[in-house]
Amino acid sequence: LVPAYGAPALAVGLAIVVSSTKIEAKLKAWFGRGRPGKRAAEYGIPSGDCMLAASWAILVCGWWAPLPVAVVAWARIARAAHYPLDCLVGAGFGTFMALGALRLVW
């Protein structure tokens, strides 16, 4: 699998994976909204899965990135792990992180 942006994209992707868990935790505490259903005590916004899916999909898939992100978001919503807005915000932050990191590389 060759990334859409070349070999530096893999290094950028690894940096995003390492940093995204800390960023996600800070954002979840800042938003402070619970998840749907029985897991309401846990913070839900933004979706960390969608955040990582968006950042990796941009780096690996390029213009096709919305497809895998939509599949991940659908799965999270279908399993009642997140509200749709959680997934949208997570994908937005993931996109922001990936594009910002790519801008630093190039």
Describe this entry's structure for a reader.
- The protein is an all-alpha fold and 106 residues long.
- It is built from 4 helices and no strands.
- Helix 1 packs antiparallel against helix 2, helix 1 crosses helix 4 and helix 3 runs antiparallel to helix 4.
- The longest helix has 25 residues.
- The two termini are 21 Å apart.
List the helices and strands and how they pair.
Layout: H1 7-31, H2 48-61, H3 66-78, H4 84-105
Helix pairs in contact: 1-2, 1-4, 2-3, 2-4, 3-4
Keywords:
single chain, 106 residues, mainly alpha
DSSP helix count? Answer: 4
Which band does the percent of strand residues land in? under 5%
Kindly state the number of beta strands. Answer: 0
Cα-to-Cα separation, first versus last residue: 21 Å
Category from helices, strands and their pairing: mainly alpha
Low-confidence stretches: none
> Which shape, going by the Cα principal axes?
globular
How much is the average pLDDT? Answer: 79
Share of helix, binned = 55-70%
Gyration radius, rounded: 14 Å
Q: SSE order, as H and E?
A: HHHH
- Please outline the major beta sheet: none
Q: Could you write a compact summary of the structure shown?
A:
With 106 residues, the chain is an all-alpha fold. The chain is built from 4 helices and no strands.
